[in-house]
Design brief:
Elements: H1 23-39, H2 43-56, H3 62-72, H4 76-89, H5 95-109, E1 112-120, E2 125-128, E3 131-133, E4 141-146, E5 148-155, E6 162-168, E7 176-179, H6 189-231, H7 241-273
Parallel strand pairs: 1-7
Antiparallel strand pairs: 1-4, 2-3, 2-5, 5-6
Helix pairs in contact: 1-2, 2-3, 3-4, 3-5, 4-5, 6-7
Length: about 300
């Protein structure tokens, strides 16, 4: 529920009425129209009226109402910018206005998040939900947006355009580092890296399996030799407890090594020769971003 309140008139605009062609008077008229529309629940019209007032005469106090109206219409990024600007610039604001702005800013930021984006090659262009992103060649840039799933589009001269999904779940989302494919490159090039990683891992596991098998053969041979010594009456180690214990240890080591060899070798062969699974698409199951209008919004000021 909107907590309605009326702010005191700003001292900067106190005094007799000005001429109709005075920018401050025209700004004040648009501002009052926005206040009336906000009290009627028409926040889209109120937002446009406050924006008109600020363009005519950019008094910082207008930004409080503009930020509140933009929050009510789901323009969270712009609302945050307006409220931050108001708190930074309006040194003559009343305590209740400052309190309302801080509460509204906290509410607005609960709907926003930031991720860092880097795109190669240099000169690439990016948009998020159709809005351009200012990129820095070779460096990450912070992208402020609403929480939820967003469409990211990339393009560059002589490179294939690409699209991706970015899921902003919290105030700070994971970094996004993307590279475009040159025009004319083989269509299978994007999948080469995962396949190479699978083959590398497969070779590593297969090699480990061979080493484990060798250890198992050695340990097994030692276990057999010690068993023969323990069971041969003519041997000096006949029925020797220490010889038996060593034989059991080698036998156990051989069993473990052979099991490890089978597991590592099997997995290694699978990675070497089995085709990689297809990449799952995130567009079909990812939740879509939505706008949430909850309680706790600040009130619209009555005048300035």
């Amino acid at each position: 529920m909107l907590a309605a309140w009326i702010a005191a008139a700003l001292l900067a605009f106190a005094g007799p009425s000005l001429a109709q062609d005075d920018p401050r008077e025209r700004s004040r008229a648009a501002f009052r129209r926005g206040v009336s529309q906000a009290h009627e629940g028409n926040y889209a019209a109120a937002r446009d009226a406050f924006l008109e007032a600020y363009k005519i005469f950019p008094h910082p106090s207008i930004l409080l109402n503009l930020g509140i109206a933009r929050a009510h219409t789901g323009q969270w990024v712009e609302a945050e910018q307006d409220l931050v600007h108001f708190l930074a610039d309006d040194g003559g604001a009343q305590p209740d206005e400052l309190s309302s702005a801080r509460a509204e800013l906290a509410q607005t930021r609960s709907h926003l998040g930031t991720f860092r984006l880097r795109v190669s090659p240099d000169g690439a262009r990016a948009t998020i939900d159709g809005k351009p992103i200012a990129l820095i060649p070779g460096a990450f840039v912070d992208v402020r947006t609403t929480r939820g799933v967003h469409g990211l589009s990339l393009e560059a001269d002589a490179y294939e355009p690409a699209t991706s999904k970015v899921d902003v779940e919290a105030e700070r989302a994971p970094n996004v580092d993307l590279s475009l494919t040159p025009v004319g490159a083989p269509a299978t090039a994007p999948g080469a890296r995962p396949a190479d990683r699978r083959r590398t891992l497969g070779g590593f596991l297969l090699g480990g399996g061979i080493v484990a098998a060798a250890v198992g053969v050695y340990a097994g041979a030692q276990a057999i030799s010690l068993a023969n010594q323990y069971n041969t009456k003519s041997n000096t180690n006949y029925q020797d407890p220490a010889t038996k214990a060593r034989g059991v240890t080698f036998r156990t080591s051989a069993d473990v090594a052979f099991v490890a060899a089978l597991a590592m070798g099997g997995v290694g062969l699978y990675f070497l020769f089995a085709p990689p699974p297809p990449l799952a698409s995130s567009s079909s199951s990812a939740p879509q971003a939505g706008l949430v209008l909850g309680p706790g919004f600040g009130g619209i000021a009555g005048s300035f």
